Amino acid sequence: MSNTPETVIEARGLTRRFGSLTAVDDLDLEVSRGEVFGFLGPNGAGKSTLIRMLVGLLAPTEGSARVLGFTIPGQAESLRARLGYMTQRFSLYEDLSVEENLEFAAEIFGLPRRTRSERVERSLAEYGLHERRQQRPATLSGGWKQRLALAVATIHRPEILFLDEPTAGVDPDNRRRFWEKIFELAGDGATVLVSTHYMDEAVRCHRLCVMRQGRTAAVGAPEDLTRELEGRVVQLVAEPVDDAIAELRTLDSVVSVTQLGHMVHVLLAPDAEGGAETQAPELAARLRRAGLACTLAEPADPNLEDVFVALLEGEALGAPESAS
Amino acid sequence: MNDPLRTVELPARPSRLPTRFLRRAWTAYQRLVGWLIVRIEATKGGPRLIAASRRARSVARKEVRQLRRDRLTMGFIVGVPAVQLLLFGYAIEQDVRHVPCALVDQSNTVVTRHLAGQLEATQTFDFVRRPADEASARALLERGEVRAVVVIPADFTRAYHRGRGAEVSILVDATDPTLARAVAASAEGLAERHNQRLERFTAGAGEGSLRAPPRRNRFGVQPELIHPQFLEIAVLDLYNPELRTALFVVPALLGVILTTTMIMMTALALVRERERGTFEFLIATPVGRMELMAGKILPYIVIGFIQVLIVVVTGLVLFRVPIEGRLVDLAVASLVFIAANLTLGLVISATTSSQFQATQVSFFFFLPSVLLSGFMFPFESMPAPARWLGELLPLTHFIRLSRGILLRGSSLLDQPIELLAMALFTAVGFAAAARLFQKQLG
Q1: Are A80 and A214 members of one domain?
Q2: Which of A23, A234, B162, B190 has the smallest number of Cβ neighbours within 10 A?
Q3: Span A172-183, pLDDT tens digits
Q4: Cβ pair B169, B151 in contact under 8 A
């Protein structure tokens, strides 16, 4: 591998409107080969629309994108065999068996006859679908369906894999395994673009694009994004919790308050004087003054949720150089 | 059976073929296909063509697999021709039998009694009343007590023996055209058979031109040469004098059945993918638009031919619809007609977004097809604008062709315009479908 990673996806000013609604708004993007690149955002943030545009299934209203050097969507057809796409909604044939779905995908992606059945077998084994080969997807549980969908999307060994909320509605254990699979694929050299609204998944990506209302709110490695909030998080234990939270929310120096079990997690405003070190005892004093018991107040590590909240508050985070 | 590695390639399961000859033919066919593939692959653009046709075949095979598991659709494919044929066919068959009739036999001789017996033997006529004169018979007809009146005039026997052409008149209540047609067909058939037998006698006597056959003798007496006895039965359709034979229904029905099923099937074929969400998977694969459409249509062409077979064979066996023309002509006409309907289905499929919509649009097309094509009403009797509309419908042209081929024994070349019209419709339809159908969302 060369020192400068090859850019496989490049988007400039990508915009898609549906009537008066702007689903994706003037979005720039750059993804390097071998990355696991995440799109994090609430429902309706434009994640699916963006992915569909990059796969070439939706024409952008404005802007342009290049995938593996090809212009999208004009040259999308020449790219098909090199892209894999797993749709948000299960989109395989419910009336074909697991095996038949894989076979059909292998045929339609033009795998040579000799390698086809071998590849189908290997996929069945890799994704643990062996005993379920004759089953119809309709009778599979959500987790198994997702596995099948990933197996189908990767049957032709795509260079770029687009996964649109692949783990929505899947239990944690299956989600964990699914992500192991994603890293395996990335380890084999595939570039993976995955959209999610789970923080614990987003944090696993090499790089992340936090989306809000069709725009990029921030781009960067998860740890870089959280690092920017260092010194702005305070952790408290106070009684009664409800009153403490209500009290903290009235303060100008506080952006958000979240209850985590017995703990109260506080994100401070960027202009809060002295940062967490200074603010922690001040917040404790404030609570005591209000007649509440505060047994702990200390600076804490920011997490991705803080990033998300900060971005929602309109803060500018993320290295702009990776976005343009 | 459960072999997981089963590949479903072209040269599959030769072992299932019953005889050695078939196996050899199969091998030869495989070799031919193999040779063709190699030759095509060697040409410029050949590999792409082969890859494209393989993808189309994959889509077709997948479609067949799904079809086989879709009982409702399979029922539709076999059920629609069966039900329609039996419905219309029984209407033909039932009315041919046991029509309540009145007999006015003013001659009343051995000959006329024999004639009446023969008419009853056709099972069409049931002489439930024997009024004395025509006037009272007409009254019965008007009251609806009988549906037809057979009048044998007083001079019938004399005319018969003189060979002048004896005439029987039948008055039919043609408010029900099918019944009237059946009565007419039955009576005319009887007269024709009788006269043909006579002519054969004439020819056998070597005096054909003189038409002087030996007297037909049922009791083994030597025939003696006397005047011929031609029998003429004049059928007078009372309220609807322009009747056609009931046989016309089946060839037209063939077209109607194909229209119903073919348009609907393909209209649903693509829309179903869209509705079930599989469309998004499909368009993200390398399968081309044309390949996808071709793969979608292909199975239905075969199904269309199965339906043609069902209808023609049933028509022949149950309703004795003749096949006067060549089967090749019928096959070619059917192929073009099926293609025309399938492309229309594709257009519907490309423009609608749910199966419900697709069904509605299909019906929107289906009704004028039935009404304006000459299936329901004689084309010639329709007002000009209706006829112009009718000319736009492929069914109109197919009905003309199928009636010509099946009933009149004409060939395709006798009616080239009809075939061209259907071909043109197909071409326009396919172009439109190709334009309208995009591998895109939203």
Answers
A1: yes
A2: B162
A3: 888 898 999 999
A4: yes
Residues 6+ apart with CB under 8 A from B252: B373, B374, B375, B399, B402, B403
Instruction: Kindly indicate the confidence band of residue A105, based on its pLDDT and cuts at 50, 70 and 90.
Output: very high
Q: What is the ipTM of this complex?
A: 0.85
Residue range B148-161, pLDDT digits in tens = 888 888 888 887 77
Task: Write out chain B residues lying below 8 Å of A117, CB-based.
Answer: 5, 7
CA distance A162 to chain B (A): 11
pLDDT of residue B353: 84
Beta carbons of B441 and A57 less than 8 Å apart? yes
Nearest CA in chain A to B292: A108
Q: Does A17 touch chain B (CB under 8 A)?
A: no
Same domain, A35 and A147: yes
Query: Which has more pLDDT, A108 or B13?
Result: A108
Q: What is the CATH number of the domain that holds A59?
A: 3.40.50.300
Among B69, B281, B439, select the one facing A92 at the smallest CB separation.
B281
Residue A45 lies in a domain: yes
Judge if A203 and A258 occupy the same domain: no
In a domain, A28, yes or no: yes
Which residues of chain B are within 8 Å of residue A91 when distances are taken between CB atoms? 276-281
Most confident of A233-247, A290-304, B193-207, B332-346: B332-346
Residues 6+ apart with CB under 8 A from A116: A103, A106, A107, B7
Residues of A in contact with B33 (CB under 8 A): none
Measure in Å the smallest separation between the Cα of B439 and chain A Cα atoms.
Answer: 7
State the Rg of chain B over Cα: 29
8 Å CB contact of B280 and A57: yes
Provide Rg for chain A, Cα atoms. Answer: 23
> How close does chain B come to A205, measured CA to CA in Å?
24
Q: To the nearest whole percent, how much of chain A has pLDDT over 70? A: 97
Number of residues that make up chain B: 442
Residue-number span of the structural domain to which A292 is assigned:
231-300
Query: Which residue is it, tokens 């296909």?
Result: B33
Distance CA A226, CA A222 (A): 6
Kindly state the percentage of chain B with pLDDT values over 70.
Answer: 81
Using the beta-carbon criterion (under 8 Å), do B62 and A117 form an inter-chain contact? no
Whether residues A242 and A212 fall in one domain = no
* A85 and A200 co-located in one domain: yes
Q: What are the phi and psi torsion angles at A294 (to 5°)?
A: -120, 110
Contacts of B7 in chain A (CB under 8 A): 113, 116-117
- Sheet (strand B99-105) strand order: B125-129, B99-105, B148-152, B166-172, B231-237
Instruction: Identify whether residues A221 and A243 lie together within a single domain.
Output: no
Give the closest-approach CA distance of A94 to chain B in angstroms: 9
Angle at A164 between CA A159 and CA A169, to 5 degrees: 135
Q: What is the pTM (predicted TM-score) of this model?
A: 0.73
> Do A236 and A286 belong to one domain?
yes
Residue B405 — φ and ψ, nearest 5°? -70, -45
Closest-CA residue of chain A to B274: A91
Task: Give pLDDT, residue B332.
Answer: 93
Query: Within this chain, do residues A37 and A147 fall inside the same structural domain, yes or no?
Result: yes
Which pLDDT does position A286 carry in this prediction? 87
In a domain? residue A204: yes
Give all domains of chain B, ordered by start, each with its CATH number.
56-88+247-436 (no CATH), 97-243 (3.40.1710.10)
- Whether residue A124 lies inside any domain: the answer is yes
